[in-house]
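Researcher: I'm preparing a figure for a lab meeting and need a structural model of a single chain. I don't have an experimental structure, so a prediction will have to do for now. The sequence is pasted below. Please return the structure as tokens so I can convert it later.
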Amino acid sequence: MFTETIAKQMIDVHKSTFENSFKTMVALQDQAEGMVNTWLEQAPWIPQEGKQVLGQWVTACKKGRDGYRKMVDESFEKAKDLFSSTAPQKNVAKPS
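Model: Understood. Here is the structure written out token by token.
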């Protein structure tokens, strides 16, 4: 029981650390995106196709970032379930 509590606390600390780091990374990426967009608006020498490619790249990065966040959140939930005493136990065949 005590081990379960420690494990859950460790998972909570790691999750909190991840969330704070992730929020910081998102803020930095959003700031960089804003700076690039401002620069692109003031750069008439860059063709429209180039601006579209950069827009697609930003969209792909955000999609990857969101997918990564979802996967990490699911993993934290699985880790919590692993250490939960109410987690369903699988039948394991005993060696004979």
